[in-house]
Design a protein that fits this description.
Layout lengths: L3 E3 L5 H8 L3 E5 L6 H7 L2 E5 L2 H6 L6 H11 L7
Parallel strand pairs: 1-2, 2-3
């Protein structure tokens, strides 16, 4: 099993140090550190963020999520 570290991690400098060479989980609801994760992690996966969206009373946009995943599909580190 791959241990994924959840993001965001603050401050950003700590995130870079903690995540370097590891695996990260990016939430669609909080993609703040996506660029950092793409550069320092061994791999990353994406959570749809539906629970976070629901908890804030917003509507989940499944087409935007699909587009987001498609934009990452060819990244070599994307799980």
């Amino acid at each position: 099993m791959i241990p994924y570290h959840g993001t965001p991690i603050t401050p950003e400098s700590a995130a870079a140090e903690i995540l370097r060479g590891r695996h990260a989980m990016i939430s669609f609801a909080r993609p703040d550190q996506l660029t950092l994760v793409q550069h320092v992690c061994q791999s990353f996966a994406v959570d749809n963020g539906a629970f976070s969206t629901w908890k804030t009373g917003r509507t989940f946009d499944d087409m935007a999520y699909w587009d987001f995943i498609q934009s990452l599909a060819h990244h070599p580190c994307f799980d």
